[in-house]
Amino acid sequence: MQLNYDIVTKDEIIVRVQGDLDINTCDEFRDDLLEEYNKNPKDIRIEATDLSFIDSTGLGALIKVYNEIKDNNHKIYIDNIKKHVNKVFTITEMDKIFVIKEI
């Protein structure tokens, strides 16, 4: 499956994702998100209701973004994540650096 996403900046950067964040999609996603952050440095909120899958490379892309924004005291919020997707964050203990809210 592919990944579709929209990035909108208001009080924070809001990213609506749909599909799979994996080895085939993570580089472009990471680069687009960092480009937007560099133009508008704000907290990032990922609306993950339609995120079907994330693998280690997708997680790595989010960690790269996190490493870029943490020095500015910004955070990444992940909202409405499915249980099976959240399991990846829990197993890797990345739920300790991202603010996650399950469906």
UniProtKB/TrEMBL annotation:
- Every copy of the STAS domain together lies at 13-103
Q: Which GO terms describe its molecular function?
A: anti-sigma factor antagonist activity
Q: Which InterPro entries match?
A: Anti-sigma_ant, STAS_dom, STAS_dom_sf
UniProt similarity note = Belongs to the anti-sigma-factor antagonist family.
Protein's name according to its UniProt entry: Anti-sigma factor antagonist
